[in-house]
Design a protein that fits this description.
By secondary structure, the chain is an alpha+beta fold. It contains 6 helices and 6 strands; from the N terminus they run H-H-H-E-E-H-E-E-H-E-E-H. Helix content is about 45%, strand content about 20%.
Length: about 140
């Protein structure tokens, strides 16, 4: 049931503007899927949905439209990374407004070697890495 519900959620996000978990829950209910808010929250995280800025406010979006698992790190980097610089064991990544969470989610899902975690704002992402050397290497990868 989870797989079908998540597939329905992906389809809804691709077809409609969904601004809240409550709205997602109602749309899923209308489609025959009963779920709690906690379940919807987990589903959104598992499919890689993130909230991005839209004309009317924030909405849920998938980093790679049509994908059930969100964007790969490579796709997210290619589509959304504007610049990257390292400062010790922190890599600061700039993205277009509303896209830092997309890149962070892709990195968090795949956890590249040496990456300890991410923190995303609107257009800036901090990546904590194990050492300055790993940070410099990550910047090189992001620049390519």
């Amino acid at each position: 049931m989870r797989t079908k519900r998540q597939a329905a959620l992906v389809a809804l996000i691709n077809e409609k503007t969904i601004r809240s978990q409550g709205e997602a829950r109602q749309l899923l209910s209308n489609a025959g899927f009963k779920a709690t808010q906690a379940t919807i929250s987990r589903d959104l995280e598992e499919i890689g949905a993130v909230r991005v800025h839209d004309v009317g406010g924030l909405k849920y979006s998938l980093p790679h439209a049509g994908s059930e698992h969100g964007a790969s790190v490579q796709t997210a980097i290619k589509q959304f990374v504007v610049s990257a610089r390292s400062a010790g064991n922190i890599v600061v990544v700039k993205t277009p407004p509303g896209h830092a969470a997309v890149v962070a989610a892709a990195i968090d899902r795949q956890t590249p070697t040496g990456v300890l975690g991410t923190v995303a704002g609107d257009d800036t992402l901090f990546i904590c890495v194990e050492s300055p050397k790993i940070g410099a290497g990550l910047v090189k990868i992001l620049a390519e």
